[in-house]
Each structure stands twice: as structure tokens, then as C-alpha cells.
Automatic annotation (TrEMBL):
Single GO MF annotation: DNA binding
Binding-site list for Mn(2+): 158, 224, 239
Protein name, as recorded: CRISPR-associated endonuclease Cas1
Keyword Protease applies: no
Cofactor: Mg(2+); Mn(2+)
Length: 334
């Protein structure tokens, strides 16, 4: 089952029998069997015909509508796939402080552990000075989580660990054309931040689609909060996968020279730096390769992809919602 990324502006999608016909231009089109598509991510100005929309609803193909930068606008999903009982439990749990803190601690623990292990693994060859000090600091932050009893304090430790992690992450870049010392976003102002932001956006949308397909509402988060109309559960459950799916891939793409500075362009309207269309295609290919990489997960004997691992973690979360089983984050082997 594939994820279909539609990014070329002006693309038109129609349905013929059990196929999707994707018309990119007058001379360029492709056909995809509907049974091979699990989700469609639409970036910007891409049109779906009414028969294509109805076919997606019928075949439970989730359609995510995003802006050109990949930010989530909304989704199309069959009403028959909505599970109101799950949502009622989510609403109840959303009001339970103890549950929120317990889940959030597990999420932050997974994030910090995977961040630390990425630095340890990549530093074996790089041997960055003072990396041991950074790792020791993150270890201290992880140990401090045990005594946390409120979300604000937990967010504080996460922020401290991030302030240690990202400068160390930048020191693992070996391609002299790229440099990184500070994480910035909305907009990203340099190529490395641009890759991190786009990678996190792709990860977020994949997590979001799997949450919806598992019958949960993405709007009832635990760790993240703010405006009511944002899918905060997706922000929560992507945290433990940032380093192991996106950050490691970004370093590999940069250090192996798969992208050059010519693959980025500045946008005068907001001062941001973004991938060109060619750069996006390269990055998307690498992202799909990464998220489909086979690894091991303790809940299943056979190897599974990172995307399936995310789904297994969502099922762990659902079990913690419905059965009072403690949520365990996924920590990648070093």
C-alpha cells in the first residue's frame, strides 16, 4: 500500500474504473490502481474530480489537503470509519491530569532517548569534541523526568534537552557547504532548517493519517496544546520518531551530497529558504525509503517498517486510552 504525494501545481486527478488517472500536464499522465493506494497527500493546487473523491471515500483512502509547504489544512475520510466511542474516551482522558502527565512523560522519554542514541551512533565515526558532555547532559534530563509531576515542568526539560541536542546535531554535518547551529522555523531561514522542517512536516502528516485510520481523533493531545482546531495528538505521537526518521535522514542526505545549495531557493515574501521542486522530489524519495525501512519492534516478531512501527505505537496509545495499560514509547536500538 502506497502513499501518493501530489505536489505538481495544476495536477488533475480523475477516476477510470478502479484506477486513478493523474494528469500532470497535457503530455504527462500516470495511472495508479486504487487498491495499491493507502493515502494521498495533496500539496497546494491539485484538483480531484467528484468521482475520484467518491472512490477514495468508498475505498477508505485517506486524503490529506496541505498547502504547498506541506502544512495541514484538512482531510477527507469516510464517516463510516469514525469511531465515536473512542472519541468519547479521548474526551474523558483529556480531562485527567494524571493520565496526561503519564503519557507525556513516556513521549518525552522516547524523544530524548532516541535523540541521545542518534548522537551516540553517528559520533562513533565523527568523534566530535565535547559530544560526551552533551550526551551526559541529555542523560541528566532523562533522569530528571522521573520526578516530574506537571506538564509545564516536563516541557521545560524537553526544551533544555533540545538546546543541548541541536548544536551537537549541527556538528555532525561533514559537508562543508552546509552549516547549522540553531533550530528555527516558520519560516526556516537556512537549508538545514528547511530540510528539518519539511521532514517533520512529512512525518507529522504520516502520523496524522495513521491516527485517523486507527479510529482516533487527532485533536485530543496530551503534551501539546493551544488552539482547539489543531491535531495535537499527531504532534504528540511524532515526537519519539523525529530523530530516528527525520534527523538521521537529513544528515545522510547532506553528508552524502544528495542535495546541493542549488536545490534551495529563498522566498522574499517571508524570508524563508525552501527546497526547489527538484529538491523536493529527491527528498521525498529519501523520506519514503527511510519510513519504509525495516526494523524490529518488541510487539511483533517479524521485521516491520518505520511506518508500521508508528502504527504499532498508535495502537499502544489506544490501548492505554481504553485499558489503562501504561504507554511505552519506541526507543530505537543503538
Amino acid at each position: 500500500m502506497a502513499t501518493l504525494y501530489l505536489m505538481e501545481q495544476g495536477t488533475w486527478v480523475q477516476k477510470e474504473q478502479e484506477r486513478l488517472i493523474i494528469q500532470v500536464s497535457k503530455t504527462q499522465k500516470m495511472e495508479v490502481l486504487m487498491r495499491e493506494v493507502e493515502r494521498i497527500m495533496i500539496f497546494g493546487n491539485v484538483q480531484l474530480s467528484t468521482p475520484a473523491i467518491n472512490a477514495c471515500l468508498k475505498h477508505n483512502i485517506l486524503v490529506l489537503f496541505l498547502n504547498q509547504a506541506g502544512q495541514y489544512n484538512g482531510h477527507l475520510w469516510s464517516l463510516g470509519s469514525i469511531h465515536l466511542n473512542n472519541e468519547m474516551v479521548q474526551i474523558k482522558r483529556h480531562q485527567e491530569h494524571e493520565f496526561q502527565v503519564k503519557i507525556s512523560k513516556a513521549i518525552v522519554y522516547g524523544k530524548l532517548m532516541n535523540s541521545k542514541r542518534l548522537l551516540m551512533r553517528l559520533n562513533r565515526k565523527r568523534q566530535v569534541p565535547d559530544m560526551d558532555k552533551v550526551i551526559e547532559g541529555i542523560n541528566s534530563d532523562i533522569l530528571s523526568l522521573e520526578s516530574v509531576d506537571n506538564l509545564d515542568q516536563l516541557r521545560g526539560y524537553e526544551g533544555i534537552a533540545a538546546a543541548r541536542y541541536f548544536p551537537a546535531f549541527g556538528q555532525l554535518i561533514t559537508n562543508a557547504a552546509f552549516s547549522f547551529s540553531l533550530r528555527n522555523r516558520q519560516p526556516p531561514t537556512d537549508p538545514v532548517n528547511s530540510l528539518l522542517s519539511f521532514g517533520y512536516t512529512l512525518l507529522f502528516n504520516n502520523v496524522l493519517s495513521l491516527i485517523i485510520s486507527e479510529g482516533l481523533s487527532p485533536y485530543f493531545g496530551n503534551f501539546h496544546y493551544g488552539e482547539r482546531d489543531k491535531p495535537y495528538l499527531a504532534f504528540d505521537l511524532m515526537e519519539e520518531f523525529r530523530a530516528i526518521i527525520v534527523d538521521g535522514m537529513v544528515l545522510r542526505v547532506i553528508n552524502n551530497g544528495l542535495l546541493t545549495l542549488k536545490d534551495f531557493e529563498p522566498v522574499a515574501s517571508n524570508g524563508g529558504v525552501y527546497l526547489t521542486d527538484k529538491g523536493r522530489r529527491i527528498f521525498l524519495k529519501e523520506f519514503e525509503s527511510r519510513i519504509n525501512k525495516l526494523i524490529s519492534h518488541p510487539d511483533i516478531q517479524s521485521p516491520v517498517s518505520y511506518r508500521q512501527t508508528i502504527q504499532l505505537q498508535i495502537r499502544r496509545y489506544k490501548q492505554s486510552l481504553l485499558s489503562d495499560v501504561s504507554y511505552q514509547s519506541f526507543v530505537r536500538d543503538i
